[in-house]
Amino acid sequence: MGKIASMAYFRVPPRWLFVKITDEQGNVGWGEASLEGHTQAVEGCLDAWFERYQGMEADDIEHIWQMSWRTSFYRGGPVFMSALAGIDIALWDLKARKLGVPIYQLLGGKLRDKLKVYAWIGGDRPGDVEAQALARKAQGFQAVKMNATEDVGWLDSPAALQGCVERVRTVKRLGMDAAVDFHGRVHLPMAKQLARALEPHAPLFIEEPLLSEHLPGIRALHGLTTCPVALGERLHSRWDVRPFLEAGCVDILQPDISHVGGISEMRRIAAMAEAYDVALAPHCPLGPIALAANVQVDAVSANFAIQEMGLGIHYNDTGHDITSYIWNPEVWHVKDGYIAVPTGPGLGIEVDEELVRSLSKDAKPWVSPGFIGPGGEIREW
């Protein structure tokens, strides 16, 4: 046992928020509390929780998780759950490192030795996908994901959807699987058309075909298409996930470990999804700590399907990537569409604290981009 002695967070480029927890014996754990576009809000929450949790037993991970959830009165949501994720992941890393084992050993032991992965192509305004897909293939990937469209009106010309179909066909011709992210940009009148148009080209899945506040619409759309429907990055707890499982309108669940309260809640969500025959494909366009945390849960989840990797994603435009900030970037080597499950202690990565501290100085918060339509109206990004 060891009491929490200190906690710190580090805002680092391109858009990540790392958390470090140290106990009285000098044991250290790292977590990631990244919430894209809302870093300052999460930092404020961490300030309050850090003061409260100093002196508590670092091994009591579930007690601290429940304290964060049940004694705040207001609970859930992206800010609270991202802050909690940073703390939770760091505590799991600390505990497993102290015991000299990977986190997955504390979760029951791994079910697999390697994990299927995919990476992004195309950017926010998707284009030039053939060259980018070939580059991913050369990196070892066999599956990619791209945004379906640029900004789309509530009711737009059907011609606005044809580019998406052609891009999927292009990637498929290269012998790769292609997932399509509607990104919540596409409203129901257009989403129905796009799902139907993509069907003959067998996308790996269609992601966030509608925003998650439109459960009845997602349920209706799910019944209209044979394309597997994926969603979950904007659901922040098992209670948020439950209505979608009960409605039978999701095939692939995509919780984000940095937005759902960390490893503890991700493990519970995965088990819930398994009971509904729903696959797990965690959302992770974030940093190396978040990815490493996902990998620990993926390794022990029977319903794991595929893991998103932020390697070279278009947001990493500052020269920093998931291979940055760690001493052992080789853990992210992709071969034949898979990465190996790391065998090192804790998260299986070694954080370069000196670099983290150096680049956190005066780091600017990342601001979410937006789309403006031709009439001056704000459109979903």
UniProtKB/TrEMBL annotation:
InterPro entries: DgoD-like, Enolase-like_C_sf, Enolase-like_N, Enolase_C-like, Galactonate_deHydtase, Mandel_Rmase/mucon_lact_enz_CS, Mandelate_racemase_C, Mandelate_racemase_N_dom. GO terms for biological process: amino acid catabolic process; D-galactonate catabolic process. Gene3D superfamilies: Enolase-like C-terminal domain, Enolase-like, N-terminal domain. It holds the Pfam family MR_MLE_N. The keyword Thylakoid does not apply. Its cofactor is Mg(2+). GO terms for molecular function: galactonate dehydratase activity; metal ion binding. It comes from the Eukaryota. Residues 126-228 form the Mandelate racemase/muconate lactonizing enzyme C-terminal domain. SUPFAM superfamilies: Enolase C-terminal domain-like (SSF51604), Enolase N-terminal domain-like (SSF54826). Keywords: Lyase, Magnesium, Metal-binding. PANTHER family: D-GALACTONATE DEHYDRATASE, D-GALACTONATE DEHYDRATASE-RELATED. This is Mandelate racemase/muconate lactonizing enzyme C-terminal domain-containing protein.
